[in-house]
Amino acid sequence: MDNLFVALFEILSFGAIVVLVVLGLGIIASMMGIFNFAQGEFVLLGAYVTYIVHSAGLPVWLGMLAAPFVVGALGFVLERTIVRRFYAAPIVAMLGTYALGLIIREIVRGLIGGLYLSVPEPLGGSVNIGTMHFSSWRLVIILITALVMVGSYLLLARTAFGLRIRASLENPALARASGISTNAIYGATFAFGAALAGLAGALIVPVFSLFADLGLRFLIQGFVAVMVGGVGSFAGPVAGAGVIGTLAAALPWIIPPVIADVLVFVLAIIFIKFRPRGLISTKGI
Amino acid sequence: MSNDRSHLSRRRFLSNFAFASTAIATGVGSWVVRPDWANAASDPIKVGIATDLTGPIGYAGNADANVAKMVVKEINDAGGLLGRPLELFIEDTASNESVAVGNVRKLIQRDKVDLVLGGITSSMRNAIKDVIVARGKTLYIYPQLYEGKECTPNLFCTGPTPAQQCDEFIPWLIKNGGKRFALPSANYVWPHTLNVYARKVIEANGGEVIFEEYYPLDQIDFSATVNRVISNKVDVVFNTVIPPGVGPFFKQLYEAGFLKNGGRLSCVYYDENTLNINQAAEIEGLASCLDYFKALTPEDPFSAKLQATYEKQFPGTFLFAAGSAATGTYRGLKLWEAAVKEAGKVDREGVAAALDHAKIAEGPGGPAEMVPGKRHCKMKMYTAVAKGGNYEIVARSAGLVDPKEC
Lengths: 285, 406
Prior knowledge:
Radius of gyration of chain A: 19 Å
Radius of gyration of chain B: 23 Å
Structural class of chain B: alpha/beta
Shape of chain A: globular
Oligomer: heterodimer
Low-confidence stretches of chain A: none
Structural class of chain A: mainly alpha
Low-confidence stretches of chain B: 1-6
CATH topology of the largest domain in chain B: Rossmann fold
Distance between the termini of chain B: 69 Å
């Protein structure tokens, strides 16, 4: 019984981590139609900002607070200068953003000397119930993921800004005719997606330590999650991330990990074969 | 303006052409360190270093290249070898076997080096050894700790083998940890081969292996494994999971109360570089067994001198540490120096014959000597335990430990 609870908690916490990482990716993919291959590196940058703030002797939570703003600002600049040139050609956009990601990744690798560095969590230790131990920081991540999910949903579904984002996605020409600057909206959406990635990076770096390939590790999982969930809605990628994250964490409990790793992708491919538009195929929220 | 840009002037073409041809000729990622007293009368002996200056294990490769620069400078300052200066050729193997083969070929065919030292991973050694030893007809020294079983003629290994890392270490672990072992491992050749040997030593000393499990190299969530460790009441985790997985794995073990309940972590590649992957409390008591630790410097004046020289010449993030082959690189170059002195020439047959029984009286962690006919190196081994973010030496071999290879 104890085992079951521990297993459920661990699976839930890894699922939450994947959801957190995929959230920004999904919003950019669904709301802008751009597959941002540099998303993993935005996660890495969020982690790096947290590390920099920590190594400057400031409290870690300050770094975690700063990370989404710094990465969001960088995302905005990159959208204005580079990514906006790719909107007409989504395939080229994949290559372009991949190149961007590569540049960011190798710069960070140089800056940290290719090492693996630990960043302490603001809230360490574990919560003990009987003989069971639950990592406090993973609890915090689950909580923040839930908050961010609800917050993002409300932003997109309930605010005027969210309405504009959706309008720009659905019919850019009509949106422009109605006086919405789609240009500015795209910039803001991309920055928002990048900021979410930055936040994800900041929150997960105490769990996984800082290394140059941190973002890359989640990129493939993230794209499979978006595929399984379905592009075009907010809920799709989030649902997909939940499924992929849970599967990736749950399978090693029952079958050898080397097989589990592959099986996640095999299951995803089979699923997409039978449901090519993903779990949630409607457009909108 | 755009008109201007598309117009390719002759001058621009020539300058681009000159740049491109220089890049092709020297190669990107090639460095040549010339001795400052080279003269026409004695052409230099060429030492080739092929190591991972870039890519995921760049931190190790850069340290190895630094050690080579340090040793070559020291030899040149003392008058060179056989009255000839040493010239150092460094090629980047880029943590990528297909890039490496091309670059190593440059060392052999273009630079015609007299020795190649390098390669860090076993897959790298396997990729470049044929280029060096068989087709290149050049001497090759491999400096990293590894799984053993490399018995190619003219290929000498100067890093620790499974026997050197297990024979004294595992009995210590049983005494200072317990009898129930878990062997969580990354799924590649080193852990597979090392575990076969470790299991034999564990069982011969009255311990038992509770489970031996392999994970994809990039796995970073180990909750299922941690649960098996805890629920099976494992005493010693003999870890061969590598970064990036090892950090989260140790952290999850710590959070699950493994250390608090008296569990012992152990990992035979852990050196000063890897200490920073986790916070000190998460790996408190982690035991490692290597040929050198920085903690040896107070008791061993030669190691202290070496460590100080290195840190003075190369301050920064690339540490002089055993797990990244830095000590093996030092040992390899000094053994080779001794062999060249004995042979009195640099041709492969002569040097290999002398290297077969070469000895050095001083080195990082103590003396070292080749085991004749085995092409592996006897050396002293140390067991160290992590305490508050540093190592403390807790056991040392009585003499030189036999590699038991070939």
